[in-house]
From TrEMBL:
<protein>
    <recommendedName>
        <fullName>Nucleotide-diphospho-sugar transferase domain-containing protein</fullName>
    </recommendedName>
</protein>
<feature type="domain" description="Nucleotide-diphospho-sugar transferase">
    <location>
        <begin position="47"/>
        <end position="245"/>
    </location>
</feature>
<feature type="region of interest" description="Disordered">
    <location>
        <begin position="278"/>
        <end position="297"/>
    </location>
</feature>
<dbReference type="InterPro" id="IPR044821">
    <property type="entry name" value="At1g28695/At4g15970-like"/>
</dbReference>
<dbReference type="InterPro" id="IPR005069">
    <property type="entry name" value="Nucl-diP-sugar_transferase"/>
</dbReference>
<dbReference type="Pfam" id="PF03407">
    <property type="entry name" value="Nucleotid_trans"/>
</dbReference>
Length: 297
C-alpha cells in the first residue's frame, strides 16, 4: 500500500482515493464514466496521476489494473463486496464502515486525502475551492448557505481531510461510534456525532462544501461555469445512476463546446435528475426541485 501511495501522492502527501467493487467496475459502467470525467474536465486530467483506486474485490482490482496506474486491493476477510451493495443493507453498511477505517489508516500514515465516490463526475480541479484552514471538509446533500453551519446535511461520498492529530482522533471516534449507533450508515452517524462535545474538544475545524461548486442530484450545481464536481446522489439502483451520469457527461460536453461568451451569458443547467428519483431512499428530506433548463436549447 505504501508504495502505491508514494507513487500517487502530491508533493504535500495528498492523494485522491476512490473505492471500487465489481458491480461498478464492469465495462461501460460507473468506473468508465468516472475516469472519463477526469479526462474531459478543466484542469482535472493531471489529477489522475494522484488518484488511487481501492478495489474491494478481485474483479474490481483486475479491471482497475486494465484502466489505471494506481490500484490497491483492500481485502476484507469474511466479507464479499462484489455485488451491487443496495443502500442500507448489511453488506452496504459493512462496506461503508470498512471505508472509514481504511481512511483513518491513511491519516495515520501521514497522507492527506480527497475521498471521492466513483459516481462523482470531476469537471474542474476542486483544490482552489477548498478551505485552507479546515481539517475536515465535506460535500453536502443540502447546503444551508453557511459553510460553518453544523446543520448542513453532509454526504460522505466526497471529502477532503488533512492528516493531523485532530483528524486521526476524529476518524477513530467516527468509526467507534458505529457501535453506539448500530445499524446506521456512516453518514447518519456523522450527523449524530457532529454535535458531540468531543468534536469541539478536539478542536477539529469542519467546513461544509457549497453545492454551487460540489453539487449532486439532490441539489445540483446551478452554474456550469462554477461546478467542480457532480454526484449521482439521491439515486437508487445502478441502471438509473448510469443513465443520469451519462446525461450529466453529455451536458458537460455540450457546455464545453459553446463559445466563451455563450458559456457566460446562457443560464444553462443540467437535464438531470431523470431516472434518478429526488425521493429515493438515499435522502432524508425533499429538496426544492432545482430549475432545470435543457442544455443545448
Amino acid at each position: 500500500m505504501e508504495k502505491v501511495l508514494q507513487e500517487a501522492a502530491m508533493e504535500d502527501k495528498t492523494v485522491i482515493i476512490a473505492t471500487l467493487n465489481e458491480a461498478w467496475a464492469a465495462p461501460n459502467t460507473v468506473i468508465d464514466l468516472f475516469l472519463e470525467s477526469f479526462r474531459i474536465g478543466q484542469g482535472t486530467r493531471r489529477l489522475l496521476d494522484h488518484l488511487v483506486i481501492v478495489a474491494l474485490d478481485e474483479k474490481a482490482y483486475r479491471r482497475c489494473m486494465e484502466l489505471h496506474t494506481h490500484c490497491f486491493a483492500l481485502v476484507t476477510r469474511g466479507l464479499d463486496f462484489h455485488d451491487e451493495a443496495y443502500f442500507m443493507t448489511h453488506v452496504y453498511l459493512e462496506m461503508m464502515w470498512r471505508r472509514i477505517d481504511f481512511l483513518r489508516s491513511l491519516l495515520e500514515m501521514g497522507y492527506n486525502f480527497v475521498f471521492t465516490d466513483a459516481d462523482i463526475m470531476w469537471f474542474r480541479d476542486p483544490f482552489p475551492r477548498f478551505f485552507l484552514d479546515a481539517d475536515f471538509q465535506i460535500a453536502c446533500d443540502h447546503f444551508s448557505g453557511n459553510s460553518s453551519d453544523i446543520q448542513n446535511r453532509p454526504n460522505g461520498g466526497f471529502n477532503y481531510v488533512k492528516s493531523n492529530k485532530r483528524s486521526i482522533e476524529f476518524y477513530k471516534f467516527w468509526y467507534s461510534s458505529r457501535e453506539t449507533y448500530p445499524g446506521f450508515h456512516d453518514r447518519d452517524v456523522l450527523n449524530f456525532i457532529k454535535f458531540d462535545p468531543f468534536i469541539e474538544s478536539l478542536g477539529l475545524k469542519i467546513r461544509f462544501l457549497d453545492t454551487a461548486f460540489f453539487g449532486g442530484l439532490c441539489e445540483p450545481s446551478k452554474d456550469l461555469n462554477l461546478v467542480c464536481t457532480m454526484h449521482a446522489n439521491c439515486c437508487f439502483g445502478l441502471d438509473s445512476k448510469l443513465h443520469d451520469l451519462g446525461i450529466m457527461l453529455q451536458d458537460w460536453k455540450t457546455f464545453l463546446s459553446l463559445p466563451p461568451t455563450l458559456k457566460r451569458s446562457l443560464s444553462l443547467s443540467w437535464r438531470v435528475p431523470q431516472n434518478c428519483s429526488l425521493n429515493s431512499p438515499h435522502q432524508h428530506e425533499s429538496p426544492e426541485k432545482s430549475v432545470q433548463q435543457t442544455v443545448g436549447h
